[in-house]
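ok here's NADH-ubiquinone oxidoreductase chain 4L:
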Amino acid sequence: MMIMYNLMVIFIMFVIGNLIFVSKNKHLLVVLLSLEFIILSIFLIMLLLLSFIEYDMYMLMVFLVFTVCEGALGLSILVSMIRTHGNDYFQSYNLL
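and the structure:
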């Protein structure tokens, strides 16, 4: 019963993160935070399921390494855009 409650909470976290990601945001930082929220919910569901079947947690360490790399890359792009454009608004970027 407790596992079903945890899965429901994690699923709600995942849905909220996706709703924030697909909504029209003005700032790049909000998009990056919503991606990290989605990654956190995926990490929690992997932790729950791997501990439920009593499997080794090496895959979680690999997942965390890639998550940290993704977060560092996103922050470096954010800093680069702020330095070149002066803000992180999506309207001020010419993406073409």
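+1. The radius of gyration is 17 Å.
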